Amino acid sequence: MAFDQKIRSYEVQGHEVPEPEMIKTPAQIEGMRKAGILNTAVLDYVSEHVREGMTTQEIDDLVREYTVAHGGICAPYGYEGYPKSVCTSINNVVCHGIPSKDRVLKSGDIVNIDVTTILDGYYADASRMFLIGNVSEEARRLVEVTKECLELAVKEVKPWGFLGDIGAVIDEHARKNGYSVVIDIGGHGTGIQFHEEPYVCHVGERGTDMLLVPGMTFTIEPMINEGGYEVYIDEEDGWTVYTEDGSLSAQWEYTLAVTEEGVEILTY
Ligand code: MF3
Ligand code: CO
Ligand code: CO
């Protein structure tokens, strides 16, 4: 098969190439597309309801109720012991913030809501930022530039490109704006399981790392810090990731498929 030979030719040139199980069938991608449509609907539903004065537990309730009512399952719940249905990461929380009835959204907060839906066995994973009340100009700019990092990265996704192209453009755009890119956590293959190979690093070098091939499905989910790139995990809950220096962090995430023509965004 010409396709396999082409991959093999990159491999003999010394490039890292995807394993066969990283390449989805059209039927699998169709399953992910449907999961993506529901995942987008969940995020749209949350967008309509998120407001100052609400607790992050109420966001968890909205996500769970809407997902279940539409035949889906919230992937985070019970995943490696994660206790809730969604991640809500506020201000200096980089990711994996746990919803709580004690955390009320207040004016000035920036919050990432990260939704992962399973529908008929297929996964879709996406997150958006929300601005609560009066948000500082600096925080708005961080949120905006982080979105730009994701959109620029999507433009790099094409067959016979490389994962390193994605990290390169994200790091370049973040640095140009005075920000840093989190490297301890990254994007990931997804679709049949929550987290699959490959690891999608948000820093990189063009033309390096794994070859991109039609049928690969993965997330891009840059976490961009106002200050340093260093992070730490909350020792008490084992999940919440904070910026080491207490600076703000923002994140946006899509699930994508590499197509023959370029890229298909499966979630928004
Ligand atoms: N949705 C996150 C991601 O983008 C993973 C959350 S894992 C959880 O990969 F257990 F915290 F939900
Ligand atoms: Co993800
Ligand atoms: Co996610």
Instruction: Quote the beta fraction.
Output: 15-25%
Largest sheet: 4 strands, antiparallel
| Whole-angstrom Rg | 18 Å
Note the overall shape.
globular
**Any ligands, ions or cofactors bound here, and which?**
2-amino-4-trifluoromethylsulfanyl-butyric acid, cobalt (II) ion
Q: What's the name of the CATH homologous superfamily?
A: Creatinase/methionine aminopeptidase superfamily
Instruction: Flag low-confidence runs.
Output: none
**How confident overall, as mean pLDDT?**
98
Name of the top-level CATH class: Alpha Beta
Helix content: 25-40%
- Write down the CATH topology: Creatine Amidinohydrolase
Question: What's the topology here?
Answer:
Layout lengths: L1 H11 L13 H24 L6 H14 L3 E2 L12 E4 L2 E3 L14 E10 L2 E10 L5 H20 L6 H14 L3 E2 L5 E3 L6 E5 L16 E4 L2 E3 L5 E3 L7 E3 L5 E3 L2 E5 L4 E3 L3
Antiparallel strand pairs: 1-4, 2-4, 3-12, 4-5, 6-10, 7-8, 9-14, 10-13, 11-12, 14-15
Helix pairs in contact: 2-3, 4-5
The structure holds 2-amino-4-trifluoromethylsulfanyl-butyric acid (MF3) and cobalt (II) ion (2 copies).
